[in-house]
Design goal:
- With about 280 residues, the chain is of the alpha/beta class.
- The protein has one domain: Rossmann fold, CATH 3.40.50.
- A 5-stranded parallel β-sheet has the order 2-1-3-4-5, sandwiched between helices.
- The longest helix is centred in the first third of the chain and has 22 residues.
- The chain is globular, with a radius of gyration of 18 Å.
């Protein structure tokens, strides 16, 4: 597919990860259409069909998701399972029926088993059950991998499934009730208050010991050799440099909080919720 001639829909394109992907596609010459949660309700097949008729994309990149940190996953496991599963299942089916040329689906590192050798390899995905805190989210996203593989086998559908690591960066969600650990820590440390030090990293604003909500998963790291072989991906930013860049961005923009505890962002930034 020649990007310069392609129209590409990015679901979740107004969120953290999606906004960056949309910008990259535009810079590559594509007509990239970033969709937010208010544009079309991707939980409904009729809305998906309407979107595909309206926009007539050559490709769809599915990044829309209900995501959040440990606290959000514990509070709303049913929502995290249902909405992430139904959006992906219906969108993939809609793209198949409409004959979309290429469909890219974002998975999550939360799909991996709780006890996985580091670094994680793709073959480890089916070695056990995910970490309990974010298992509903991880299992919902893993089901989309099964769907894309089944559709490739039966229908010859050009669908691929990518597993991003835990994400952070400019435009991330810094709400203490729903953010992931890195933006939450950045926001708390920027307040320079004793109260902030006592807060936990799972999203609660009331002080309590961090040990009461920390995930027991000791470490997460992906083996990216297959990505490098397939499309030349290599990490180029160290954790220290990346966090420093986000701290500078956060202090410079003073961006307002993006979500309340009941209005979680419709993007994967995380794409992973442990992402």
């Amino acid at each position: 597919m020649e990007l310069q001639k392609a129209t590409i829909v990015v679901s979740g394109g107004t969120g953290f990860l999606g906004s960056h992907v949309t910008e990259e596609l535009k810079q590559a010459g594509a007509t990239a259409l970033g969709l937010g949660s208010r544009d079309y309700d991707l939980r409904r097949r009729t809305e998906i069909a309407r979107m595909l008729r309206d926009l007539r994309p050559d490709a769809v990149v599915h990044l829309a998701a209900v995501v959040g940190g440990i606290g959000a996953n514990r509070e709303q496991p049913g929502r995290f399972f249902y909405e992430n599963a139904i959006m992906g299942i219906e969108l993939i089916e809609g793209c198949r029926v409409a004959g979309i040329g290429k469909t890219v689906v974002s998975g999550t590192i939360c799909a991996y088993p709780k006890h996985t050798p580091v670094p994680f390899e793709e073959d480890n995905l089916w070695d056990g059950y995910p970490e309990e805190t974010n298992a509903p989210y991880g299992v919902a996203k893993k089901a989309l991998l099964v769907q894309t593989q089944a559709y490739r086998q039966q229908y010859g559908m050009n669908a691929i499934y990518l597993l991003p690591v835990n994400l952070y960066g400019p435009r991330d969600n810094f709400d203490l009730n729903s953010s992931h650990v890195i933006p939450a820590m950045i926001r708390k440390s920027s307040r320079q208050s004793n109260a902030a030090i006592g807060e936990s990293c799972c999203g609660a604003t009331a002080p309590r010991p961090a040990s009461s909500c920390m995930s027991p998963t000791p470490r997460r790291k992906l083996d990216t050799r297959r990505a490098e072989a397939a499309f030349g991906f290599r990490s180029s930013i160290t954790l220290r440099d990346g966090v420093s860049d986000v701290v500078r961005w956060f202090r410079a923009t003073r961006i307002p909080v993006q979500a309340s505890r009941h209005e979680l962002p419709q993007t994967a930034g995380t794409p992973a919720s442990g992402h």
